[in-house]
């Protein structure tokens, strides 16, 4: 059974792989044998992730890119291709958030969040999937969504809108790329305290989250690795595409 999850010989591109959740998922891919390109705006953080992967015996390299810029993504795609020859797995895990009330929301902030959370994923899929098709490389694209994508959460209007868009992009591209042997799925994480949401986790909000999470706790970044590796494997999830996989401690099944 372990062969089902063996990623030896595969190359993964982890966009946003320098973040708390993205780095954990990237480490999970590396632990199963994938060669991983860690892509982020903060090259120092990306290099730290690379060092952790290498210290565990994996292979990785850090690359710098702005996910909201087509030119930047094209450049980093060329750099990764020179390094690895191509890729089989694309993990889209960039993200930013804000708790600005709706009537105070400025369009500059709206654009920033949408550029990173939604536009960036569209651009990366255009650029990296096109190259996969040109090279006739079958593979897997994994987008990171959120529980706020299906039922919007209070206080995070733009974030919720952007993540709802991710679900639609995922399902559309699953149909678009299926003839080329590229599967497209999304992971819907529950509450994993990361940089972009810690600032809005007041005691009252934590209590509300726990009241709607049957497992009565936050997730840990490592708990996203299993779903990531499963979706990345062309053996374990070969007939899975267009799906939205919840890793949320039951949050999506709970109401009042």
From TrEMBL:
Membrane-spanning residues: none
Molecular function terms, GO-annotated: oxidoreductase activity, acting on the CH-OH group of donors, NAD or NADP as acceptor
SUPFAM superfamilies documented for this protein: NAD(P)-binding Rossmann-fold domains (SSF51735)
Keyword presence, Plastid: no
Keywords tagged on the record: Oxidoreductase
Superkingdom of source: Bacteria
GO biological process terms held by the UniProt record: carbohydrate metabolic process
InterPro entries from the UniProt entry: NAD(P)-bd_dom_sf, SDR_fam
PANTHER family membership: 3-OXOACYL-[ACYL-CARRIER-PROTEIN] REDUCTASE FABG (PTHR42760:SF115), SHORT-CHAIN DEHYDROGENASES/REDUCTASES FAMILY MEMBER (PTHR42760)
Similarity section: Belongs to the short-chain dehydrogenases/reductases (SDR) family.
The protein, known as: Gluconate 5-dehydrogenase
């Amino acid at each position: 059974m372990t062969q089902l999850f063996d990623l030896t010989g595969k190359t993964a591109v982890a966009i946003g792989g320098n973040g708390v959740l993205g780095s954990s998922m990237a480490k999970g891919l590396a632990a199963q044998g994938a060669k991983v390109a860690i892509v982020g705006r903060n090259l120092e953080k990306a290099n730290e992730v690379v060092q952790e992967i290498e210290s565990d015996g994996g292979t990785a390299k850090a690359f710098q890119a702005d996910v909201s810029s087509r030119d930047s993504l094209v450049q980093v795609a060329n750099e990764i291709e020179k390094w690895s020859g191509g890729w089989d797995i694309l993990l889209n895990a960039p993200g930013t958030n804000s708790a600005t009330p709706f009537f105070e929301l400025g369009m500059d902030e709206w654009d920033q969040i949408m550029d990173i959370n939604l536009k960036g994923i569209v651009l990366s899929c255009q650029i990296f999937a096109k190259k996969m098709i040109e090279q006739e490389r079958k593979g897997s694209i994994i987008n990171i969504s959120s529980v706020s994508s299906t039922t919007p959460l209070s206080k995070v209007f733009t974030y919720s809108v952007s993540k709802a868009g991710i679900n639609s992009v995922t399902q559309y591209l699953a149909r678009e790329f299926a003839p080329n042997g590229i599967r497209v799925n999304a992971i819907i994480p529950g509450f994993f305290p990361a940089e972009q949401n810690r600032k809005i986790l007041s005691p009252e909000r934590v209590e509300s989250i726990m009241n709607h999470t049957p497992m009565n706790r936050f997730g840990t970044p490592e708990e996203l690795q299993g779903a990531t590796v499963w979706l990345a494997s062309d053996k374990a999830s070969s007939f899975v595409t267009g799906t939205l996989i919840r890793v949320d401690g039951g949050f999506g099944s709970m109401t009042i």
